[in-house]
Amino acid sequence: MKKKPKTTPDAPARKAIRVTVVSVLANACLAAVKGLAGVLGHSYALIADAMESVMDIMKSLVVLGGIKIATTPPDAEHPYGHGKAEPLAAAVVAVGLIAGAVGLAIQSVREILSPQYGPEPFTLAVLVGVIVTKEIMFRYVARVGEEVSSTAVKTNAWDNRSDALTSAAAFIGILAAVVTGYEAADDWAALFACAVIAYNGARLLIPAIAEVMDTAPPPEIEQAVRASAMRVEGVAILDACWVRKMGFDYFIDLHVGVDGDITVREGHDLAHRVKDAIRTEDSRVRDVLVHVEPADWIRETQKKRQPTTTGTAAN
Questions:
Q1: pLDDT band for position 313 (50/70/90)?
Q2: Cα 273 versus chain centre, distance
Q3: CATH for 11-212?
Q4: Ordered DSSP codes for 265-286
Q5: What is the tens place of the pLDDT at every residue in 74-93?
Q6: What's the predicted TM-score (pTM) here?
Q7: Can you name the CATH fold of 219-305?
């Protein structure tokens, strides 16, 4: 069996914090460039895009705060730790995306209905650089988010993708305004981008809420836990296995079936071997609560749970 590389417990948190800090610095630079170009180039879409980058900085700071809180050690009031701060931060970012999309849509409609200056052609070059930068940031942040299994970081990654879409829409609108002379073209494009951003916000809010509600993680997590437990000598059968995610870590409740004639101490020692085996296989597992039961009792219980087909035809 191939062993997984050992990692320190706070390694995922450090990666998440580092990538979030990079996002803050990159968005600060982009906000300054887009804001200056928007003012000088008479482009409302570009100014709005700069405001979106400022919002991204605030969202990234929320994510950073959530990650830092999530990695705080357990205390008397929070015996399971503070991991729920991480999906809560993700939910705040997702709601911010939706709110930002609504606000930008309202401003775009106002600009369509009111006279405005036509955008300058040089703003197109600025937007090309912004789109490329945002797409690179999306790929980088998304990769780290998958590596550390962080809902907040993955949400922050899609925030970058949404910004790239906003900038792309602004590019199309400004290009149409420059070529056709229809000054409101960039605002119509911004409206389309708002719909995409709001959709992404809603899509990212769902998994964040699911994690807060202790929704079961992907089935492969439970499958790996069961496989690790069954490899321990003395384990005859497994029953319930409940897994929940707390920030970067997993907490597991597992019912293990053993020979009913072993002593309490032997059962206790076996439970610890199961716990150690699972934690060795996956460093993300913070704790495993093992409930030892007689194997024959589990088999009888599982038989009773199976639905019976006899006697149902007459009904």
A1: very low
A2: 32
A3: 1.20.1510.10
A4: HHHHHHHHHHHHHHHHH-TTEE
A5: 888 887 778 888 788 878 88
A6: 0.63
A7: Alpha-Beta Plaits (3.30.70)
